[in-house]
Design goal:
- The complex is a heterodimer of chains A (about 110) and B (about 120).
- Chain A has about 110 residues and is mainly beta.
- Helix content of chain A is about 0%, strand content about 50%.
- The termini of chain A are far apart.
- Chain B contains no helices and twelve strands.
- Chain B has about 120 residues and is mainly β.
- In chain B, a hairpin with a 5-residue loop joins β10 (about 90-95) and β11 (about 105).
- In chain B, strands 2, 5, 6, 10, 11 and 12 form a six-stranded mixed sheet that branches.
- Chain B is globular, with a radius of gyration of 14 Å.
- The chains are: A mainly beta (about 110), B mainly beta (about 120).
- Chains A and B meet through β4, β5 and β9 of A and β11 of B.
Chain lengths: ~110, ~120
């Protein structure tokens, strides 16, 4: 039982490049989330998914797309990376209605030059 | 929209002493959950304690306890007998229910706690 896993752990991109951050959970959770963490800003919600095939915008969705193709995986895509997207990205999941606790992945540190 | 405010960017405490971290929130909901998360230098987010809004009794987990004042919309975390391992960033979080039936979490900006030996 690995919990919530994220790949990669670190990534450096050049402005304009694209990439996908991967997240997977093996806890059979329904809901999954993507956050970004910036100094002095706390964690801000980018997108979330209540269940397979559904996604909703969070607080800061601009510049990102997500995909929830199955129950386990929730990916975050940057189509054209910008320096403002330099951040630490966290994926999280819960079983809505059954669990109080949000389980977090280890995070991905992304730098856009 | 709900908001969460942590007004103390940084706090220090002597080892074995007690420290209180502040959190206030704004909401029009009557039923919700509040959480404190700890983030050590490893970056891993760790749940410290949770409080259900409809429960008047303050939650306690070993050396960690909260002072939940629903009318004042205040949710402070008290750490007793502070240990060096308590040094971390602490985030207050509010959980609300979305129209799609899942939860959304709003986090404060965090308080960095330093523990002095």
């Amino acid at each position: 039982n690995a919990g919530v896993t994220q790949t990669p752990k670190f990534q450096v991109l050049k402005t304009g490049q694209s990439m996908t951050l991967q997240c997977a959970q093996d806890m059979n959770h329904n809901s999954m989330y993507w956050y970004r963490q910036d100094p002095g800003m706390g964690l801000r919600l980018i997108y979330y998914s209540a269940s397979e095939g559904t996604t909703d915008k969070g607080e800061v969705p601009n510049g990102y797309n997500v995909s929830r193709l199955n129950k386990r995986e929730f990916s975050l895509r940057l189509e054209s990376a910008a320096p403002s997207q330099t951040s630490v990205y966290f994926c999280a999941s819960i079983v809505a209605g059954l669990s109080d606790e949000q389980f977090f992945g280890p995070g991905t540190r992304l730098t856009v030059l | 929209a709900q908001t969460v405010t942590q007004s103390q960017p940084e706090m220090s405490v002597q080892e074995a002493e007690t420290v209180t971290l502040s959190c206030t929130y704004d909401t029009s909901e009557s039923d919700y959950y509040l959480f404190w998360y700890k983030q050590p230098p490893s970056r891993q987010m760790i749940l410290v304690i949770r409080q259900e809004a409809y429960k008047q009794q303050n939650a306690t987990e070993n050396r960690f306890s909260v002072n939940f004042q629903k009318a004042a919309k205040s949710f402070s975390l008290k750490i007793s007998d502070s240990q060096l391992g308590d040094a971390a960033m602490y985030f207050c979080a509010y959980r609300s229910t979305t129209t799609s039936g899942t939860y959304k979490y709003i986090f404060g900006t965090g308080t960095r706690l330093k523990v002095l030996a």
